Each structure stands twice: as structure tokens, then as C-alpha cells.
Amino acid sequence: MINFSKLPEVTFPKGFLWGAATAAQQIEGDNFNNDWYRAEKEGKFRDPCGKACNSFELYREDIALLKELGHQAYRFSVEWSRIEPREGEFDAAATEHYVDQCRRLVEAGIQPWVTLHHFANPLWFSDLGEWHKRENISHFLRFSDYIVPKLAPYVAGWTPINEYNLHGGRPPHPDQHLKMANYKINLLFADAAVYDLIKQHSTAPVGSPLAYVPAEPVRAHDEFDRLMTGMVDWTSNGFYLHAMRTGELVFPFVDGGFFPELKGRCDFWAVNIYTRHMVDSRKADAYGKRYLHAKEAMIDQEFWFDEMSPDAVLGNLLRLTDKPVYITENGCSCDDDLYRIRYMALHYAAFRNAIDLGVDLRGVFHWSLMDNWEWGTYAPRLGLVEVDRKTFQRTPKPSAWIYKQIIANNGFSGEVLFSQEKC
């Protein structure tokens, strides 16, 4: 058994940035004009989103909470369907809402980091074929050209399109491959185009978060598992990194080429990194997630929690030594908050190791600030803060106060984190 109290002291470079992240669809509530609401009305989810955390109304309280918890930065998304509810028509009140949110964050001493697209499309954009059609990128650029100048005076960092390397699905069955490939490639071009647009209005750094999943073979020395792992890694991570570094687009079974408009369209590597995925070439769905289920682990817990895999995280970060890096999401789903604290400690130690080995890692955003609607269910609990589903009262967990200490000290020691058996 690991003795967590014996972890060595971990400190981060001066100026290291600590914060938390959320997404509009997951916390705001009552987003009636996007494709998630349509799917909700069709009964496709275990739990309807409803009012989520009611953060569209309670954003002032959320900012006060961020300040109380000592956060230095807050990554959040603006809801496109609120700002442009109908094609080409912009809502002044919704726009002012997000301007006010950015203004209040700055006044509270918290850096706003803004995401323009976090998995939610306006209904009209979805009806036009959304990201399946290259020509639809122009609609996203029109929206961005409207909202970016209004937020630019306040924004410290831009994370335009969240995890577009996961859009369109994981490595699919052959008959779906081209559809998925075109979807991801269109988003790649959208990301590069919006980078140039943002640079016309803002000097803040820009980098779209990559769902940066370490892929490992189930059988470490099996030829087929290793080959499939390489394919999974390339279609998830490698194609994006290569295109941004060189301008060359290389995706399996798709004609490639060099596109100057792709090269260098990020100021930093933004990565959302949680745990490893194990690849089994003997299964149709080779891209499996490693997690522990409560019953299997024989613990008193209603859901599941992510496997701790700091070594895999470290290995993936070591591929990113040519630009600054921000961890734009990191956290775990669990009901046992002590497990969350240990997850944080081991992963933050891995982040420090990455810095020592040459990665210019400059900040971490914990996912998530609060327990929220996780794309169809409220069962996963990834928040530092618990939210009452009826009253929306926010109650910080022990991990939230531990994180506050980590921020204040710009690091931690195992003795401090785990001096007590229970948090």
C-alpha cells in the first residue's frame, strides 16, 4: 500500500497558474436552443440537464466562490446558442451577460480563460449539418468575430474549441471512418481559422484543448495491440500535433497534404488529461477506458472512479517540449473525496516531474469547479464543490480547501495532505 504521507514536497515554478474549468452546457441550465436540449426532449439521456447548476443565474455567486477558494484563473465557455439564437441574429442581453462575467472575474483578481465552443451547437447550426460540412466553418467564424472583440479586453487566455479531436467519435468501424475523419479535419481547419481571427482582436495566448489520452496496449509486447495502439494514438493525438507543427495533414485512409494555414496555429499546447486508455486489438471497440467500479473495488461508493495513472500522464506530456503547456482539464470522478485528493497529489507530482524533464508547463485547471451535468447524467462527481440538485446550494468539499492550500503554497507535501485519516 502506498504511504501517501511520505510523498516528497512538491513545489512549482513562480507564476504557475492554478484554476478550475467548467462548460456552459454542463452548469448554466436552461439552454433551450442547442442540440443537447433537442436530444434531452427526445429522451436520450439518463438524466435531463434541466437547470444544471443554475449558473447562468448564479454566476456572481460562483465568482465569489472562486475567489473564496483562492483560484487564480477560471476557464469557462460561452454558449453560442444563447448569443446567436438564430442564424445571423445576436442577442444583446446574452452578450452582456458574458461580458459582465468576464468583467467581474477580473475585478475579483481571477483570470478569465474563454472557450468559444464546448460540445454544444445552436439548433440552426446543427440543422445545417454543423461540422460535417467544411463550408459551415464560416458560421462559427461569424459568431467568433462578433463575441471575441467584446470579451477581449478581459480575457487572459483563449481555448477556442474544446477537444475537437474527440468530435465525431473514437476510431470507428470501417463504414463510419470517413464520416468521423471529415468531422475531425473540418474542426481542425475551424480551429486554425479562429486562431487567426482571435489574433486580430486580442494579444492573449490561444490554444484549443486536446483530449490528450495516453494510449497503451493491453498486452505490452503484442504486435497487434501495439499496432492498434499506434492507430488510436494517431487518430486521437498525433494527427493534430503533427498538423500544428508542420502544416501537413495525415489521417488514415484520407488524402493528405500540406496546408500552410494549419501550421503554428496555437501559442501553447492545451491538454485535457485524466487517465490512460488501454487498447485491445482483439475487441471491436479496441479503445477501452480503464476505470474501477465500486462493486469490483469493494468500496462504499455509488459510482466509479478513474484509475490513477501518473506515469502514463508523464509519458504523454514529454511529447510536448516545443511550446508552453497548460493542463486545461484534470480531475477524477469519485464519491470518495479522499481518493480525489490522492489523485490530485499523484498527478500534480507527475506534472512537476514533467517540468523537471523539460516540459514548459505553466498552469493547471481542475475539472471541475463543481459537480455538474456530465453529458447525459448527474452520476459522475468530478467537482471540488457539491451542488444541491434542488436548492443549488454550493458546498465546498475537503478537496476544495486542500486545493486552496496548494494554490497558496504553489505546491504541497504529503504530510500536509494526508496527516489525517479522513479529510
Describe the structure.
- This protein has 423 residues and is of the alpha/beta class.
- It has a single domain (4-417), classed as Alpha-Beta Barrel (TIM Barrel), CATH 3.20.20.80.
- The protein is built from 14 helices and 19 strands.
- α3 (55-68) packs parallel to α5.
- Mean pLDDT is 91; it is low at 290-304.
In short:
With 423 residues, this protein is α/β, with parallel strands linked by helices. Helices cover 38% and strands 17% of the residues. The chain contains 14 helices and 19 strands.
Helix and strand arrangement:
Blueprint: E1 10-11, E2 17-21, H1 24-27, H2 35-41, H3 55-68, E3 73-77, H4 80-83, H5 92-107, E4 111-115, H6 123-127, H7 137-151, E5 157-158, H8 177-201, E6 210-211, E7 215-217, H9 223-246, E8 248-251, E9 254-258, E10 269-272, E11 277-279, E12 287-289, E13 291-293, H10 294-297, E14 304-306, H11 310-317, E15 325-330, H12 337-356, E16 361-367, E17 385-387, E18 394-396, H13 398-409, E19 411-412, H14 414-417
Parallel strand pairs: 2-3, 2-16, 3-4, 4-5, 6-10, 7-11, 10-15, 15-16
Antiparallel strand pairs: 1-19, 8-9, 11-12, 13-14, 17-18
